[in-house]
TrEMBL record:
Gene3D superfamilies: Tetratricopeptide repeat domain
Organism: Lentisphaera araneosa HTCC2155
TPR repeat residues: 291-324
InterPro entries recorded: Tfc4/TFIIIC-102/Sfc4, TPR-like_helical_dom_sf, TPR_rpt
Protein name, entry field: Uncharacterized protein
Gene Ontology cellular-component annotations: transcription factor TFIIIC complex
GO BP annotation list: transcription by RNA polymerase III
High-level lineage: Bacteria, Pseudomonadati, Lentisphaerota, Lentisphaeria, Lentisphaerales
Record has Methyltransferase as a keyword: no
Record's keyword terms, sorted: TPR repeat
Amino acid sequence: MKYLLYFLSFTLLALEPTVPREQKVQYQEIIALMGKDSDKALEKLNKMDEKRSPIFDYLQGSLYLDKKDQSKAFSQFNKAIKKLPEFTRAHKALAFIYLEQAKHKLALKHLSLVISQGSGDASIWKNLAYVHMSLENWQAAWFAFENVRLFDPENAQLQKYFLDIRMRQENYTEALLIAKEIIEDTPQDRNTWLTYISCFNQLNKSEEALANFILFEKLFKLSDTEKLNLAGLYYSQENYLSATKYFGQVEGELQADAKLRQAYALMNIQKFAEAAKILAALKVTEFKNKETYLQTFAQVQMNLGKTDEAIKLYREALKYNANNSMTLMSIAQLADQIADYEVAIDFYTRSMKHKDLMNNALLRRARIYLIQKQWSLAEDDARAVIDSNADKNSKAFARNILDSLPQ
């Protein structure tokens, strides 16, 4: 009878229907049966006249609800409210059904009516808060939880609800203060620690975030996600050795991404051979963004002086994005370095589709044309730069090319 007992609790301010004198005997009989034989109680209720007091409709609905027949319960509670629109317990019951069905806007209507009657207890306010949370009415949810606290001032869980609301409102300054209070009281609260660190990140206080993550590691064993995040904080502080350490510890489905970021960290401290070893052990099929992996590996090979391998990797990257400006220009420059001018001209030309690269590609192509003694082509490219909105240095370089042409 858990539902029945739940709904029999009400405050002194709740509006209750009266039981007419001629129906009091039936009322007493049904109340007695409800605790002993709910089926017989329902049988008696079904035989009653429809003009009965709304309390009987409510009791019948409570019995159906206890039998998990929400449809019949819903019908009876509505009958009770039709007879007595301010029937508090019936509104509570309908709110409960709507909450069970995740129909939060409808639940809100009935909970609000109960509150307006001055009949809100801790349970009502808590349900109201949950409804507002589900509807993303964050400030209304905060107000509802404040009222829960009036009934239950020692409820430590409320602080977590307040923290969640401020995080969802992106009010990270206040969230930080709430999170700090929680972890001071319960230092072993892992999730709140992570929220606390997240607040520092959101407030662009990466040094404080890192310092607290170091404390976090002393309290808890890090998950792979946490290792990845800690490594990222070390990376943001340009502590590439520590970043490399933690990126290297990540396993599972996050490992491929972590290994790629480990390679970035090694590149920043000029450890290209180590980065190449890590990248060579990976497979392109492990990455969602295959192009990024291939570009990174190509940059490492380029820094190791392995130009042919770098070009090969960049060409492979083009299979996943044929118009990537960085890849096109990189191939052109590498081919230019090894005097493979036909390939260089081809890729400089393809790079010109990107306006931000056009003048640079024109100047580089013009220089190759000079080497090949294709004077008219070199002149055309140089004049195109001079006639453009290129910067002073680019135009000066273009004039030097024109001055280098035979008279």
